[in-house]
Every structure is written in C-alpha cells, then in structure tokens.
Write a structure and sequence with these properties.
This protein is an alpha/beta fold. The protein has a seven-stranded mixed sheet, sandwiched between helices.
Amino acid sequence: MAEKTYSIPTVLTSEELMDKAFHRASKITVNGTTALDGKKKTILAKITASGDIVKDTLVEYVNRFPRLEKEDDFFPELVDLVIGLDQYKKSLGAMNWAAGRTEKLKNEALKNVRRSKDIQIIESVRSSFYGRLSSILRQISDDLLFLQNAKNRFRDLPTISSDVATVVVAGFPNVGKSKLVTELSTATPEIAPYPFTTKGIVIGHIEESWRKFQIIDTPGLLDRRLDERNDIEKQAILALKYLTHVMLFILDPSETCGYSMEKQLALLESIERGFTGVPIIVVESKCDVARSGNNEHLCFSAETGENMDILRQQVIFELKKVVLPEKVVNV
C-alpha cells in the first residue's frame, strides 16, 4: 500500500446526524396550486432531504475510511492492533446497510405520499418515516462511535510506504542506530508516531540512481529479546515484520552501549528466530573505538565515516534483491 494520508470526515453521533437531517428538513416549505398540493410537495421535499442527508453522510464514511482488505500487510496488521480490524469492517458494513435501508425507506415513503390525497395520511407517512429513520440510526449508534474513535486513532498511525523495499534497523539502545539511519538517509529522517514506542518510528530514505529505498529504526521495539515482550508488543513486532524486507542488526563491540556482546548476540538470535525468512545483515559499529575481530561482520564508524560507503552498498545490494508483489488494480 503506497504512502498516503487519509482525509476522513468528522463522524457524527446518531443524535447529531438525526438533528442535522431533521433540522434541514424543518426549514423546507414548498408552495402548491392547492393546499393539498403544497402539503404533498413540502412533505415530499422533507422526506427527500432528510433521507438524502443521512444516506449521503453514511456513504461518505464508507468511501472515505481506508479500505483494508489485503492480508499479510503492515498497515492492516497495525490497524488491527490499534483499532480492531474485525470491528472496523463490521462498523463500515453497518454504515453500508443503514445507507441502503434509508434509501429504501425514503422511496417507499415518497411513493405513499404521491398516491395519497389525504393530508392526515400524508403527514402520518412523514412521521412514520422520521421514526423509522431514527430507529435505523439508533441501531448503528455504537458503530458511529467506534468510527469516531477510529478516525482519531488513524491520525496516530505512521505513514509508511509498504510498497518500497525497506531495511529495518535493530540492536540494543545506544549502539548507533539513529546516527546510522541519519548518515545513510539522503535527507533528514522523519519521526512518525507509532503506537508502541514513545519515541516514534524513524523513517529515512536511501536513493540509488532512479530507485528509492526506505530505512526505518523503531526505538523501543527491536531492542529487547522477543521473549521478554508482552503480547501487544509481540503483535506490534509481527506487524512490523510485514514491512521488513531486509534487517540491519548492529552490534557494539566496544560495549559502551551498556550491554555485553553476550547479551547483544542473544538479542540477535532472538531477532533471527522472530524474523525467519528475512535476510539479516549483521554489522559492528564504533570501529574507531573497538573491534571484535569477527571478519564476517563489517565494522563501521558513523563518526569517522570508515566503511560507511561499503555498508551503504551492502544494504543497497540486499534491497535490490527484493521482489515486491505487483499492485492489483480493481477496475
């Protein structure tokens, strides 16, 4: 799913939507050739206006909220964690049902008014329509409140391109992740909100010729063993897994990060178990301070720039191998 921002309208409560529809209808008066003709035209206009306001508002909610049908993708997984995907789809389905039911009731009421010549019956049809319309809105009251809350939560979700090859950086705090992301990025990385870390998610971009890649650091997520996580954090990491095409794991052989190499290697093993199938590049930071002597791990320094070009090319080499699924366009 490409990076986008959603323009979701304000979701009214059932009472607010009823007030909006009936207030608009109450202002309508249509003149006719006779008292009966004027009454019929006025009632027809009131029913049409109130019914259309409700239907159009509900249809707008259905159309303007994001469609989340694709499985095994980062954003739907994240929405499921933060909002609840099943209830989200159920509430949008309720909007669709209520919009269709409103249109049907409106057309039935209009037909009954048109074929009647009795003012009392015409007024009774209008009153009955208003009552049934109110009943429909009361039935979806909880769904409207849910979508109102969902709209607010969508604002707190990160805007990330999941159709761009992405490298996610992992390792203990203070191993040099943020500095590396900044150095590898072609512009200053953005800090986007993420519901499972107080520091937000750091998003940078790497450009190579005509191609653009994404580099992400998730402070507070991939800096502790997975078996030490609570269920919500584990689910958050699972959502992140759908976004991770390549993992860049940073070790600090100087141990100035505050963690021993033994603990850092244990974290690496935990990440490898949790991200099976994801290629993991293991590198060592702060080579200007200390080196482990492991020739399998590229040692770099973001401070002095040593081996930064080699690391960049190594990351790009792995990202170029990523085969992204083709976009399916529904016509």
